[in-house]
Design a protein that fits this description.
single chain, 7 helices, alpha/beta, elongated
Length: 175
């Protein structure tokens, strides 16, 4: 039974691929097509970073850490600029979006409050969407770290109260 089945398969293959054009259409072209599409879908890995103008209304502390996180991201190239320059870059389509770090960024995170970044993007721009997700992930990372530090400060204060707000702030910044 198995020999008969093998004989039928062999005969059908010989009939199907009797001419070289059959090999071209059934084997070579599909392989070439797959290679072309896989290159188009995955690229060559040298994609350029998305330039995102960043308006720093607050400098230093956690705002600077957010900027460092964005600089470390492989898909985003943050550039610190003024608000006017950032809006010019977006309106001239030099950048897909702009990010504004608010003036009370450090204080609100230190108090454990929710901080929202101002994000203005070109409509229907996938690069802007990807950059926004990167910025949100960086903000979430910093907010989580800030919450851990706040918990450490509260635990230290429960053990031994701080003499004043300056000492409490110093402990917070040290942590």
């Amino acid at each position: 039974m198995v020999r008969q089945l093998a004989a039928i398969i062999r005969k059908d293959l010989l009939v199907r691929f009797s001419s070289p054009s059959e090999l071209l259409f059934f084997i070579v072209l599909p392989v070439v097509f797959i290679l072309i599409l896989s290159g188009a879908a995955f690229g060559d890995g040298d994609e350029a970073e998305t330039v995102v103008p960043v308006v720093m209304q607050e400098e230093g502390g956690l705002a600077a850490r957010l900027l460092e996180e964005l600089e470390a991201a492989p898909s985003v190239e943050p550039r610190v600029v003024s608000l006017e320059e950032a809006e010019t870059m977006v309106s001239g389509e030099e950048a897909p979006a702009l990010l504004v770090i608010p003036a009370d960024f450090n204080d609100r995170l230190a108090r454990g409050e929710e901080v929202s970044l101002t994000w203005r993007a070109l409509p229907d721009n996938t690069a802007a969407l990807a950059a926004e997700q990167t910025a949100r992930a960086a903000l979430d990372e910093i907010a989580r770290a800030s919450m851990v530090v706040q918990a450490a400060v509260a635990a230290a204060e429960a053990i031994r109260p701080f003499p004043g707000e300056a000492e409490r702030q110093a402990y917070y910044e040290q942590s």
